[in-house]
């Protein structure tokens, strides 16, 4: 069974093909796993060193080119006009590029303008394309990112379920906390329970779910993987769960104090809580994103934590395989002067990172419906007593 309906994939292709036509691009070569998945439905969640390409013509037709080891995956999940597989007998980049070139020149015509993900394409691959086809390479990656930003009903349903799984993971995380427990044990228990929930709530859905548990000084590094660091009384605890179903990821993050908090810990948490709740209330269609970031950061600055802000107030959610990144239009940062739109899904996560004290951040994921209403997909307590 395919992951998305044919109508959903066609909706995506229509959005991107319009952009290709406006830019005078005859055919686009998309290599980032996120983009290939978005336009074809093939979930290459772990490429393992072998490229996969979606070759999309301006009329919206698409072919998928991938390694022989992914042949069944492509045939099972692809909504494509053609599927081609290559073997490992030659360098996989050379071999896949030759398949791409052969495909688009099969009718004897050489395209003069080719769309690529220029910001993600290795220089050597761009040079190889130029050598094989001699065409002008045009950036089209932004067309895919813009399309991804606005979620369909099918995507919203998937993300809503993922939000429910996040709550299961957060409960399991808190349940696992006890004196002397390691970050590895806590994160492992949360992941196991989330995967169990996915099996029940979205049968057949592949998972790449993960979790971080940060204790004490490790809370200063929010992307640090779990270690054997052990929990003690008075530690700052960062809860981070990231359930992922078919490449669609949701995050739920909380900061707690294990035991009685110190005055400095309480002050930092109170400031983050205020900025967090404010930004969640203000996140709505029409709100200018840079203003939302400025206002949430202003609360932290007012409380004396301005120098400890290390990141933006949030970001878009959806496909987060890691091959291409997040939708730039959903980054809650000072340079993004766009407005919040209907059918977008964003995290709200102001935070401060204070050397010698710890990192303090909560994160919830907010979804804007077609009618402009906003709901939180990851409701979970911001305060837990241990």
Summarize the structure.
The protein is an alpha+beta fold.
The sequence of SSEs as H and E is: HEHEEHEHEHEHHHEEEEEHHEEEEE
Task: Give the second-level CATH assignment, the architecture of the largest domain.
Answer: Alpha-Beta Complex
Beta-strand residue fraction: 15-25%
**How much helix, percentage-wise, in residues?**
25-40%
Strand order of the largest sheet: 4-3-2-1-5-6
What value does the Rg take, in angstroms? 22 Å
Distance between the termini: 45 Å
Shape: globular
Number of alpha- plus pi-helical segments = 10
Strand tally is: 16
What's the CATH class label of the largest domain? Alpha Beta
Taking the sheet with the most strands, its summary is: 6 strands, mixed
In CATH terms, what is the fold-level topology of the largest domain? Answer: Creatine Amidinohydrolase
Rounded mean pLDDT score:
95
| Secondary structural class | alpha+beta
What number of structural domains do the residues give? Answer: 2
Instruction: Show unreliable segments.
Output: none
The CATH superfamily of the largest domain is known as Creatinase/methionine aminopeptidase superfamily
Topology:
Blueprint: H1 6-22, E1 27-30, H2 33-40, E2 53-57, E3 62-67, H3 71-77, E4 82-86, H4 92-104, E5 113-116, H5 123-133, E6 136-139, H6 141-149, H7 153-176, H8 183-201, E7 210-215, E8 236-242, E9 244-245, E10 248-249, E11 252-257, H9 263-282, H10 289-302, E12 345-348, E13 351-354, E14 358-361, E15 364-368, E16 374-376
Parallel strand pairs: 1-5, 3-4, 5-6
Antiparallel strand pairs: 1-2, 2-3, 7-8, 8-11, 9-10, 12-15, 13-14, 15-16
Helix pairs in contact: 1-6, 4-5, 7-8, 9-10
């Amino acid at each position: 069974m395919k992951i998305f309906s044919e109508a959903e994939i066609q909706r995506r292709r229509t959005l991107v093909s319009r952009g290709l036509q406006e830019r005078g691009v005859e055919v686009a070569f998309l290599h980032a796993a996120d983009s290939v998945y978005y336009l074809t439905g093939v979930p290459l969640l772990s490429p393992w060193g072998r490229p996969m390409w979606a070759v999309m013509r301006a009329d919206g037709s698409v072919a998928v080119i991938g390694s022989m080891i992914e042949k069944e995956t492509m045939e099972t999940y692809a909504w494509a006009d053609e599927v081609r597989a290559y073997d490992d007998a030659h360098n996989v980049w050379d071999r896949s590029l030759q398949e791409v070139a052969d495909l688009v020149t099969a009718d004897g015509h050489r395209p003069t303008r080719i769309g690529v993900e220029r910001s993600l394409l290795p220089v050597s691959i761009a040079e190889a394309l130029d050598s094989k086809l001699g065409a002008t390479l045009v950036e089209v990656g932004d067309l895919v990112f813009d399309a991804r930003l606005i979620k369909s009903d099918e995507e919203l349903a998937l993300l809503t379920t993922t939000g429910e799984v996040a709550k299961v993971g957060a409960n399991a995380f808190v349940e696992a906390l006890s004196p002397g427990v390691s970050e590895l044990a806590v994160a492992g228990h949360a992941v196991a329970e989330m995967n169990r929930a996915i099996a029940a709530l979205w049968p057949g859905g592949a998972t790449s779910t993960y979790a971080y548990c940060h204790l004490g000084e490790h809370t200063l590094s929010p992307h640090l993987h779990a270690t054997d660091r052990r929990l003690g009384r008075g530690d700052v605890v960062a809860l981070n769960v990231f359930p992922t179903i078919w490449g669609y990821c949701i995050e739920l993050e909380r900061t707690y104090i294990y035991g009685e908090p110190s005055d400095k810990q309480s002050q930092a948490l109170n400031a983050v809580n205020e900025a967090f709740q404010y930004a969640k209330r203000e996140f709505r269609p029409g709100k200018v994103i840079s203003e939302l970031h400025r206002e949430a950061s202003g609360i932290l600055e007012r409380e004396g934590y301005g120098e400890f802000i290390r990141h933006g107030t949030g970001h878009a959610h959806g496909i987060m395989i890691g091959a291409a990144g997040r939708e730039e239009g959903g980054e809650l940062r000072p340079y993004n002067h766009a407005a919040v739109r209907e059918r977008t899904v964003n995290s709200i996560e102001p935070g401060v990172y204070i050397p010698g004290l710890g990192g303090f951040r909560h994160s919830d994921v907010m979804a804007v419906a077609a009618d402009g209403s906003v709901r939180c997909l990851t409701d979970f307590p911001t305060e837990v007593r241990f």
